[in-house]
Amino acid sequence: MADRPGLPDGLVVVVKQDCATCRLVEPVLGELASRSELTVYTQDDPGFPGGVDPVDDTSLAVSWHHDIETVPSLLRVEAGVETERTVGWHRQRWEALTGIDALGVDLPDFRPGCGSLSVDPDKVDELRVRFGASTLRSRRVEFAEAEDEVEAMFDRGWTDGLPVVPPTEARVMAMLEGTTRAPDEVIASIPPNLAEGTVEKIAVNAVMAGCRPEYLPFVIAAVEASCSDSFNMHGLLATTYFSGPVIVANGPGTTRIGMNSGMNALGQGNRANATIGRALQLIIRNLGGGAPGGVDRATLGNPGKYTFCFAENEADSPWTSLAAERGFAADATTVTLFAGEGVRAVVDQLSRKPESLARSFAASLRSVGSVKLALAFDAMLVVSPEHARVFAEAGWDKDRLHAELAELLTIPGSDLVRDHDGIQEGLPEGFAGSDIPKFRDGGLLIVHAGGKAGLFSGIIGGWVSGASGSQTTTVEVRT
Questions:
Q1: pLDDT digit string (tens) for 325-339?
Q2: What does the alpha-carbon distance between residue 436 and residue 454 come to, in Å, rounded to a whole number?
Q3: Pairing mode, if any, of strands 244-250 and 309-311?
Q4: Which domains does the chain have, with CATH numbers?
Q5: Fewer beta carbons below 10 Å: N end or C end of the chain?
Q6: Which of 396, 367, 388 has its CA nearest to residue 462?
Q7: Is a pLDDT exceeding 60 seen at residue 2?
Q8: Angular region, 87: left φ>0, alpha ψ -120 to 50, beta rest
Q9: Helices then strands, each counted (H, E), the chain
Q10: What is the pLDDT of residue 133?
Q11: Are residues 443 and 188 in contact, defined by beta-carbon separation less than 8 angstroms?
């Protein structure tokens, strides 16, 4: 850490020219200089104020190290130690601190001060780095002066194919302000290389993804969930299937950070949705080594492997939320990780009875993975508000919809066996005499999201279900 500059004994004042109150008290400073031992530090104009021989603090070293948050700040220093302080202009307080009566008799009794440049949001992150407050342990990478930072990160393989934000020390430190967790806390071993995923390393990639600091706790929770044994991120990476991690966020924290649960919730345009999901993918790539063509062996992949993150629309939902369904309190903020592929549409603009709409959903869900396979893949059904209204008006809660879909999706084994309907794909002939559920128990998730107009819902097909593949995993978001 840089040495802390000391203060001279006597009266010390910190000012800036770009402050109306500092300019107001300029005559008072001249009077104090003539009657006492006074040192004036100036933050912006080395020549201000006139007539008092100001000390240049445009580097803001003195202001930073002595916690100047407001100018003017008047301090008394004895034996190198600050003993008193007042901020702004308040005649009685200035007279009490200086021991001099009748100061600034031509001035108003009181004027509030201005924000110090040392706490200016545009400067504070760089100042934190400049004055040695950084405790970051990550390796520093120096670029050549003529090197383009964005292109250099492409060249080093640190991107997902789109430009990333350079993770400067100042940006990473600002990102870490989004959590109370220690930078060196290990959140998870990141597959496939099982690298230590510390809070700091996660923050570096969150910067690169374009996150704001308040998103960091969501990214950390997503890392915890994805790197659990139940979710099996390593297996998901290595599969040749389409799928990748899908993040569904629940709880009041989603509103606080401005996540989208409504119109275009599964699409582009919302910073929190886009960057939280992207950060997780960058962490798996940059820390874990899970790059396409290496451990990531997807035959086709899907665009959701850039980012796939949205919030459930709980405010307008007629149903229990996904998080509550999975045992979390209504006021908890959570992320649920689901191993999913892209989104496919369910179009039903005519059904006004829940029985009819449930049949539409079931018919569409038959195609998850393959119409000839059952119990192999999970699925997430994202029900839009207009479709949810059909069920709500008929008094169907989520349990009722689950039960109806389970019945509709119990399929005669004879329809699923190989060569039925001329399709060689399918189950062995031994299943012909059985009725088989399309999804395992708990393998179909129902989430409410989307815009209020449009009789469309969505299906996100899953990867291999159960212990042999990936299990949906929910983690509470901790600040």
A1: 999 999 999 999 999
A2: 33
A3: parallel
A4: 10-120 (3.40.30.10), 134-240+267-306 (no CATH), 308-479 (no CATH)
A5: N
A6: 367
A7: no
A8: beta
A9: 17, 20
A10: 63
A11: no
For 315-320, the CB contacts below 8 A with 24+ separation are: 315/261, 316/385, 316/448, 316/452, 317/388, 317/448, 318/388, 318/389, 318/391, 318/392, 318/397, 318/448, 319/388, 319/392, 319/397, 319/398, 319/446, 319/448, 320/397, 320/398
Burial of 320 (0-12, 13-18, 19+ CB in 10 A): middle
* Element at 224 (helix H, strand E): helix 216-226
Residues 6+ apart with CB under 8 A from 181: 199, 220, 478
Query: 3-state secondary structure string, 156-188?
Result: CCCCCCCCCCCCCHHHHHHHHCCCCCCCCCEEE
- Closest Cα to residue 191, out of 223, 221, 168? 223
Site of tokens 């001060």: 113
- pLDDT of residue 395 exceeding 90: yes
Rounded CA gap, 353 and 90, in Å? Answer: 72
Q: How many CB atoms lie within 10 A of CB 83?
A: 10
Q: Is the peptide bond before 49 cis (omega within 30 degrees of 0)?
A: yes
- Select from 280, 260, 167, 156 the least CA-distant residue to 218: 280
What pTM does this model have?
0.84
